Amino acid sequence: MHPYRTHSCGELDAGHVGVMVRLSGWVHHKRDHGGVLFVDLRDHYGLTQVVFTPGSACSEAAGRLSRESVVTVTGLVHLRPPEAANPELPTGQVEVHADALVLLSAAGPLPFAVAEEQPVAEALRLQHRFLDLRREGLHRRILLRSRVIASIRRRMGGMGFSEFQTPILTSSSPEGARDFLVPSRLHPG
Q: What is the pTM of this model?
């Protein structure tokens, strides 16, 4: 069994009701409704709502979570009440009632919102590229690029083409001031 997950955040549906699951991902949104805490947990595959009830062993720790913190949640899958179901979300019929929470990495203050698609200065996005790649629009484009490249490779391979990766013998130094060659002129032998 995988140490961090039994399922991904995008695959749970009504067929999983009553199943004990372990999910890992980023804290996408957090909403407190009179002591009952709802956390939208996001991973590479989708989003799942996790419910922390007051008095549970992990509700206090869940209240301290910040957006983009990485957590592992273990709990039982329940059907959402009909009025709370979200038909726009593949996992919108179900929620996970948390029994255990493990904080894997706490996130500090974010330089920009990851969960919302709002304009951010390009310099700031490039400086925090690891966060920018988590934003939905860019993440979707990166996945499309991966699928297109995989398709091209598959089709070209099927037509008898081969792809070669040759070793890189030179690399440019920062700002192109000077190239370091392999073998190096600076270290004989």
A: 0.77
